Amino acid sequence: MGTLDEKAKDVMDDGVAHTGRDKDTGAGGLIILFFIIGFAGSMVLGWVVFPKLLYSQKQQPFNFNHALHMEEVDNGCESCHSFREDGSFTGIPKLAQCTDCHEETMGESEDEAIFVEQYVWKEREVPWLSYSRQPDCVFFSHAAHVIGAEMDCITCHGHHGETETTRPYEYNRITSYSRDIWGHNISGIAKNTWDTMKMDDCAQCHKKAGVNRTSSVQTERDACFVCHK
Amino acid sequence: MKEQQHEAHVKGEQKQDRPVMRFGMAIDLDKCTGCGSCMVACMSENNVSFREDESNKQDSITWIRVYELTNGKSYPDTEVCYLPRPCQHCEGHDGHSPCVSVCPATATDYSRETGIVSQIYTRCFGCRYCMAACPYHARYFNWWDPIWPEGMEKYLSPNVSPRMRGVVEKCSFCFHRYQSAKDKAYLNGEKRVAEEAYQTACTQACPAGAIVFGDLNNPEHKVHKIVQPDPHNGNKSKNPRAFRLLERLGTNTKVYYMSDREWVRRAGDNYLAHEETGKISKPHH
Question: What is the pLDDT of residues B195-254, one digit of tens each?
């Protein structure tokens, strides 16, 4: 009660010293200041702290140098990432495929030594973490895109083949999806075609390519059971 | 903007060089022995989880369920017939099947390209309108999260998405097999998926060969030859042995049943005493 009285007295004193108009501006300035501090705080929270909280990181078992391998193979990405006879896509190669070349260490890198000693000799599959894995409800056909539409790998995967190190695998703590699905920009803005891999991004690219099918009774667009399972 | 959209539509139609298919089934009830192989094959193919008490049919999930019908007569005239019931994949009128029409979440959809009624579990929020709308009890609700006994999770098919608690699921005509078959067709440079390349799990599991599956629109497919659907009469079969379940509702289903026995064909619909079996009043659309 006492403090309130004092404040009231202050105001009275101010009122004596200044005109009423000036008094209003002083209080308004404070409000604006607090608003700016609050606004900046929430911005920092939303754009810096929240993504850090939302995503967790895992390191790959060991570093993989795509650039180095690209120099050694004849057939680009397809040398290691190929189709099976049934039309499905192999994705990350299994140990047997690597062992074709890596029965013994070929170079002098530390990572290769880890690979050969820990995995090749012990015949253990490498637990790679896949950056581009779509959620479980999605059926993505590599055959339709790579063979059917003759698209190149870069359109969706970016310049992954030119990287010398494997970046940490980031995943959403709530959904456990890879961060590459939403994209690294928290606001979901994509500068390149490979930045985001959400359903909207699929739809956008299909629209651009003129794949406007109307088989769905519900949406008059492509039916759900094309890309979903 | 509207014009642009319209242009896109026209362009899309021009690009639509793929033939319109209507996948369907012909099930010969005179061949079915009621062994239940189709149910087992379906459950393992489609990652249907276990229930603590599978004998409680109120709660258990069976995408294709075998029903037992009797003619209601006493010995020695008693006859029994077994009727496997997958999702009937109703076309209704232009794809407006009972479930698709009521779904408020766009979780179930009818594809004009394949004639398959899809169910997207991640969109479904479990209101169960579709279950109420379905005249065939083909839809099932997940009251619990799926549980697989230790080790059984290794048998899960990666091609079928497992369902979570609170969503509705149903037979998809093993659509994932069509997706895989399409992948292979792309690799081999084929335009169409061959009849033998896409067959459902129940079809292949049936030891009696009672189930025939294929494209009802393709005159070369066995199912078309058996059923001979009449597009001018609501796709009613021209085969006198064939009938559809509750055909007079106008659901325009794509699963046809066959039997030589009249009481079986009569059991497929709610006939009044004076009505003749197989005579359908004009389809409702």
Answer: 999 999 999 999 999 999 999 999 999 999 999 999 998 999 999 999 999 998 999 999
Residue B6 lies in a domain: no
Residue ranges of domains in chain A: 2-57, 130-229
Cβ atoms < 10 Å from Cβ of A228: 21
Residue that the structure tokens 């940490």 belong to: A168
Cβ contact, residue pair A216, B110, below 8 Å:
yes
Residue span of the structural domain in which B87 resides = 20-173+200-267
pLDDT tens per residue, range B119-160: 999 999 999 999 999 999 999 999 999 888 899 888 999 999
**Interface contacts A/B by beta carbons within 8 Å:** 119
Helix (H, G, I), strand (E, B) or coil at B255: strand
Tell me, yes or no, whether B2 lies in a domain.
no
Q: Is B151 left (phi over 0), alpha (psi -120 to 50) or beta?
A: left
| Number of structural domains in chain B | 1
Q: Which residue matches tokens 């003749």?
A: B276
Identify the CA nearest to B285 among candidates B219, B236, B226: B236
Taking alpha carbons only, the member of B160, B159, B164 closest to residue B147 is B164
Its sign, for the CA torsion A163, A204, A147, B115, is: positive
**Cis bond before residue A127 (omega within 30° of 0):** no
Interatomic CA distance for residues A101 and A97, integer angstroms: 8
- Residue B73: inside a domain, yes or no? yes
Pick the residue from chain A with its C-alpha nearest to B100: A218
Side-chain half-sphere CA neighbours of A45 within 13 A: 6
The CA-CA-CA angle for residues A110, A112, A114, to 5°, reads: 70
Take residue B167 and report the two structure tokens written for it: 């969503």
Query: Residue type for A47, please?
Result: W
Helices A2-17 and A20-44, interaxial angle, to 10°?
120
Q: Is B93 part of any domain?
A: yes
Residues of chain B with Cβ-Cβ distance to A82 below 8 Å are none
The label of the residue with tokens 């026995």 reads: B261
Tell me how far apart the alpha carbons of residues A166 and B247 are, in angstroms, rounded to a whole number: 60
* ipTM score: 0.82
d(C-alpha B206, C-alpha B28), whole Å: 11
Dihedral of the CA atoms B198, B203, B205, B208 (nearest 10)? -140
Place of tokens 């992948």: B183
Rounded Cα–Cα distance for residues B271 and B178 (Å) = 37
Parallel, antiparallel or unpaired: strands B255-258 and B23-28? parallel
Torsion of CA B143, B202, B107, B104, to 10 degrees: -80
Contact state of A87 with B187 under an 8 Å Cβ cutoff: yes
Q: For the domain that residue B75 is a member of, what is the CATH number?
A: 3.30.70.20
Rounded distance between C-alpha atoms, residue A24 and residue A27, angstroms: 5
A135 interaction partners in chain B (CB closer than 8 Å): 122
Determine if the pTM surpasses 0.90: no
User: DSSP string covering A189-200, please?
Assistant: --SSTTS--SHH
Token pair 């479930």 is found at B99
